[in-house]
Amino acid sequence: TISSLFPKSITLWKNFGVVRVLLPEGEYEVTTFRSDGPYLDGRHPSTVTFSSAEEDAKRRDFTINALFYDPFEERVIDFVGGIEDLKNGIIRTVGDPQQRFSEDYLRLIRCARFSARFKFKIEQNTLIAMGKLKDGIKKVSAERIRDEITKMLTEGNPRQAFEILEQTGLLEEILPELSHLKNVPQPPEYHPEGDVLSHTFLCLEKLPENPPIILALGVLLHDVGKKFSFTVEERIKFPKHEAVGAEIAKNILERLRFSKNEIESVCWLIKNHMCLIQFPQMRESTKKRLFMHPLFPYLIELVRIDILASHGDISLLEIVQENWKNFLLEKPKVKPLLRGKDLIEMGYTPGPIFKEILNAVENAQLEGQITSIEEARQFVLANWPLSKVEDT
């Protein structure tokens, strides 16, 4: 057995014949050839029988994933036509597509991911089965769906992956909030590309290679609030769609079990993706606060993608980037002139007002109104006299 050949090994799933071998150069998972019994829960076989390589190949998901390599004879062993499908760029299930997908419904969205990642076409019967069995994806855990979505967004060609999900009805099952953006119109003078879903797909196409997941999710969900903020007066408008969208995105990401940090970061991007329109009118302190935010580089990239997937005029964004560049060159991160302990020393009692005072001091500092600790103290005493604060 593998365990007797390699003393440093760990049995992962004895019933499935899976052993992890620990070698100096790395870890390897060794799986015994097997055939599976019926899948009663859409995830796990009811029985497992150790068998031959040919039988093992027949239980695999797609033909391109069912190839074996013989290192002794240095040849590829193909029982299911995987080599031909690789040559022709085709994603095809092994055997009956409905049976393969029913064994593990996650394969439905993996199929879309593989098609996009490798730029392969999905074989017609396989594609039809995806639509027929779309409801089955509800049986898959949120964590597994999250991991597939993450790979879709970061492995390359995410637009094609999500278009396949939309075509097969799977998008409605896993991200109905996104699916409902189809046929939501936009003002053509700003969005010649079409409805909100078309815009979103075009944004996905413009993501950089191997994007951070926070940026990718921000791009995917940045306009998810437009369905619920749509109005028509003189023209189509989406008032406060960024705030609405941030709340919807929070619900989506919580449902898919993303981390708290990822959720907060993505929601910050969505909530702020329209703010740069007001950049020329912003106070200096507001600009500098934005520039100092750790997610600002992602915000700039999200806004750039948003613009390039719509009207294409990045002149204002170039002004923002130039200001940001100058800010980074001018000075390091601004150190606060006052902290909570300083206010206590001045005679103030700790409470909610501390946040208000310290934010105002920082704004005045960023605006250049105050430049020293003494000026900061005088600023506080002038605006929050001790006698009045203590009386409240």
What would your notes on this structure say?
Strand 6 and strand 7 form a beta hairpin. The model has no long low-confidence stretch (mean pLDDT 89). The chain is elongated, with a radius of gyration of 28 Å. Among the domains are: 175-333, Hypothetical protein af1432; 340-391, no CATH class. The chain has 392 residues and is mainly α. The protein has helices at 2-5, 53-58, 82-88, 97-103, 107-118, 124-132, 142-154, 158-168, 170-174, 176-179, 196-205, 213-221, 241-255, 260-272, 284-292, 296-308, 315-330, 340-345, 353-367, 373-383, 386-391, and strands spanning 9-13, 18-23, 26-31, 34-36, 48-50, 67-70, 75-78, 90-91, 121-122, 231-232, 236-237. It starts with a helix and ends with a helix. The strands form five sheets. Strands 1-2-3 form a three-stranded antiparallel sheet, with no helix packed on it. Strands 4-5 form a two-stranded antiparallel ribbon.
Number of strands: 11
Write down the overall mean pLDDT.
89
Structural class: mainly alpha
How would a crystallographer describe the biggest sheet? 3 strands, antiparallel
Identify the strand order in the major beta sheet: 1-2-3
**Cα-atom radius of gyration:** 28 Å
What are the segments in which pLDDT stays under 50 over at least 5 consecutive residues?
A: none
Helical fraction equals 40-55%
* CATH class group of the domain at 175-333: Mainly Alpha
CATH topology of the domain at 175-333: Hypothetical protein af1432
Strand content: 5-15%
| Total of helices | 21
* CATH level-two architecture of the domain at 175-333: Orthogonal Bundle
Give the terminus-to-terminus CA distance: 79 Å
Shape: elongated
